[in-house]
Amino acid sequence: MDQKQSQNNEVPPPWQRFKLLLGIVVSAELIVILVTLLAGNTVSGTELAASVVRILLVALSGWFLLVRDTAEAVSQVKSVSSIDSPQVASEEEVWPNIDKLTHTSNQRGLTIHMLEMMALAERYHHKLSVCMIKVSGLIALSDEEREEVLISASVLLSEMVRIPDKVGRYDETLFMVIMPEADYSGASLVAGRLHTSLNNDIGEKATISMGVAEFEPGDDLQRLLARAQESLDNELKGDKE
């Protein structure tokens, strides 16, 4: 039973009771008048006026006691229901930094984390690298197959990276791994292992390409990502050749 039906059961329709009460009173007054006429007596104007007054008094009393009070009760029930059943927030509002398909970080979450890691690397002279992973060749697949490939890629990446690393879906078919305390050489080594594992897992349905870039002192986000994108583009060109 839904909420509306529940409210109707808890608060009976007031108009039905009001009309029933009014009908009983009017019928009683008419019966009194008919009995008086059948007995051969006359009904004076004063008696008729008294009957009308009685009917009006009952109507007014019934309105205040039944219709008005019940309407206020319904209003209170609706107010309580609106408090007890707040509007459910969307998934994007609850998890604004999470990709809905892969449940890894989305572009917003990756960007925030990258800026934090860059600030630490700049201040404390820590190593930091980023790896871009492009999953290509999905156009021929159905929507369901495409989603399965992307989910499989995200699961494998999440399982293979270190605990401090951050995995996310940066774009439609582009993943990113943020690797703190990793220089270019170390990040390239990790990228090679990831590339091999992804090829073994989804290589029959997709082509995997990777680009690695290391943070350099003075880098801003755009410059670091541009070098990673350039490295990825170079590998994509090599794959085509």
Number of strands: 4
Task: Tell me the number of structural domains.
Answer: 2
Instruction: Indicate the radius of gyration in whole angstroms.
Output: 38 Å
Which fold does the CATH topology of the largest domain refer to?
A: Alpha-Beta Plaits
Q: End-to-end distance, in Å?
A: 64 Å
Explained architecture:
- With 241 residues, the chain is an alpha+beta fold.
- It folds into two domains: 3-84; 94-240, Alpha-Beta Plaits (2-Layer Sandwich), CATH 3.30.70.270.
- It is 63% helix and 12% strand.
- The chain has eight helices and four strands, in the order αααααβαββαβα.
- Strands 2-3-1-4 form a four-stranded antiparallel beta sheet, sandwiched between helices.
- Helix 2 packs antiparallel against helix 3 (45-84) and helix 6 packs across helix 7 (184-202).
- Residues 1-12 and 80-85 have low confidence and may be disordered.
Give keywords.
4 strands, disordered N terminus, 241 residues, alpha+beta, rod-shaped, Alpha-Beta Plaits, 8 helices, single chain
Outline the secondary-structure elements.
Layout: H1 3-10, H2 14-38, H3 45-84, H4 91-94, H5 107-124, E1 128-136, H6 143-160, E2 166-169, E3 174-180, H7 184-202, E4 207-214, H8 221-240
Antiparallel strand pairs: 1-3, 1-4, 2-3
Helix pairs in contact: 2-3, 6-7
